[in-house]
Design brief:
Elements lengths: L1 H42 L7 H28 L5 H28 L3 H26 L2 H6 L1 H17 L1 H11 L6 H33 L6 H15 L14 H27 L1 H7 L2 H23 L3 H9 L1 H26 L7 H29 L8 H9 L1 H11 L11 H10 L1
Helix pairs in contact: 1-2, 1-16, 1-17, 1-18, 2-3, 2-4, 2-8, 2-14, 3-4, 4-6, 6-8, 6-9, 7-8, 8-14, 9-10, 10-12, 12-14, 14-15, 15-16, 15-17
Length: about 450
């Protein structure tokens, strides 16, 4: 009887993971559609659509709909709660998150930052606090879990600290705006504070935690000394690296040096990470599915380029250049959000069979990747041409719109390629349950 109950719990937990992943992927579709709409509004503005309001909806659904829900799903998939009380708590959190995200999706395009959008975004911040606290409680007393996943859990738990820390940026916006600072240095610094600890804290540490979880879960022996060095170097770098996000204000020389040292620490951490992965490359190659290998490689390359760009931005000349040419900033943000984090997450989903990839899905993935890297090339190319004083790409906004069409289409094809939710009751979840109960 206990075996039957355990098997039923495993099947139900996997189905919950699949539901969460599908909803997260649905938000990815909406993010891509909103991104395409933004690029069209630069070509042909629509009088009844406010560009900034659509931009707010796009960014909030990207960070709090697609990626927050994706990591919510993956963390609870990797570190499964054992008690029914914990599972009920996480279920309630997840569905309340849907209320908050969909509220932001509907309110931001209509009113921008106003009563309803601020209410829903505040609700989402409070829900992230609840999730961080509940997840911490879920893992801290499980000695078996700590013994097996000590390295990966350090990354994951610190990612939650940075998730909470990032929320200080939005909280600061209210007082800044109330004192007439909207649009000023403090206003944008608060926004960059939030983005920095989302991109370089929450997302990066969570992704690395899941990477080490996979190695541990598949019994792939890796250099734990290198992993520890990656952890401590990135930890030491994360807070001072915020200086790189405010160099556009042309601060004192000490701030440049602070950002530069943090960027160097990140590069050293990257070196240890690459050495660790190189040592286990053959074992990983045997474990990973073909598409997962490809997505993982692209995510790793994007991470390398991202950290290299942060190092370059520590120099005053290039910090000022990035401020003057926003194409570099937009390209960097998309490289971090899509190239590194999103491709890593999609690869994780596919490897764990939380998503499938048949002919339609493969076509969608190809379309997404081609259009993403094409738009990145256009953004960095246009910025470089303007930097060098060369003729710019003619009709650039129209070219970007055309190049971007394939991204929402690609994600939509991937979304439509997924089978019914109950497919995972048999045979995949059943087989997994039998293995766990054996």
């Amino acid at each position: 009887m206990l075996q039957v109950k355990k098997r039923r719990n495993i099947v139900e937990q996997r189905r919950e993971s699949v539901v969460r992943v599908r909803l997260a992927l649905g938000y990815f579709v909406l993010v891509a559609v909103l991104g395409l709409l933004l690029r069209w509004l630069l070509v042909a503005p629509v009088s009844w659509l406010n560009y900034k309001n659509i931009l707010h909806a796009h960014s909030h659904v990207a960070l709090l709909g697609w990626l927050y829900c994706a990591f919510f799903a993956t963390l609870l998939y990797a570190y499964k709660p054992q008690s029914e009380q914990a599972r009920k708590s996480f279920r309630l959190q997840f569905w309340l998150t849907q209320v908050a995200v969909q509220g932001m999706l509907l309110s931001f395009p209509v009113q921008g930052y106003a009563l309803f959008s601020i209410t829903f975004s505040t609700l989402q911040i409070l829900l992230t606090y609840w999730f961080a606290w509940r997840f911490w409680r879920h893992v801290k007393d499980d000695q078996l879990l700590w013994h097996r996943h000590y390295i990966s859990l350090r990354f994951v738990l610190l990612s939650l600290v940075f998730l909470v820390l990032s929320s200080f940026g939005p909280w600061a916006l209210g007082p800044v705006m109330a004192t007439g600072g909207a649009g000023g240095e403090l206003y944008y610094s608060a926004i960059y504070f939030y983005l920095h600890f989302q991109y370089n804290g929450w997302f990066t540490f969570a992704a690395l935690g899941l990477l080490f979880w996979f190695l541990e879960n598949r019994n792939i022996t890796y250099n734990k000394s290198y992993a520890s060095r990656v952890f401590w170097l990135l930890t030491l770098a994360c807070v001072p690296a915020f200086a790189l996000s405010v160099l556009w204000t042309k601060p004192a020389a000490a701030i440049y040096w602070t950002g530069g040292v943090a960027a160097v620490l990140q590069i050293v951490a990257l070196g240890y990470l690459l050495r660790l992965l190189w040592a286990v490359r053959l074992k990983l190659a045997r474990q990973l599915q073909p598409w997962v290998k490809f997505l993982s490689l692209l995510a790793l390359v994007s991470l390398v380029v991202k950290l290299a760009m942060q190092l370059v931005s520590a120099f005053p000349y290039f910090a000022d250049l990035a401020y003057r040419l926003r194409y570099f900033v937009i390209g960097y943000l998309h490289l971090s959000l899509i190239g590194f984090v999103s491709l890593f997450v999609l690869g994780f989903f596919l490897q764990q069979r939380l998503l499938r990839l048949s002919a339609m899905g493969r076509a969608g993935m190809v379309l997404l990747l081609v259009c993403f890297f094409l738009t990145e090339a256009l953004l960095f190319g246009q910025g470089t041409l303007l930097w060098q004083g060369l003729p710019a790409v003619p009709a650039f906004n129209l070219v970007m719109f055309i190049a971007s069409i394939g991204m929402p289409v690609g994600v939509l094809l991937l979304f439509l390629d997924q089978p019914g939710l109950y497919l995972y009751k048999r045979p995949i979840a059943a087989a997994e349950a039998d293995k766990a109960c054996a």
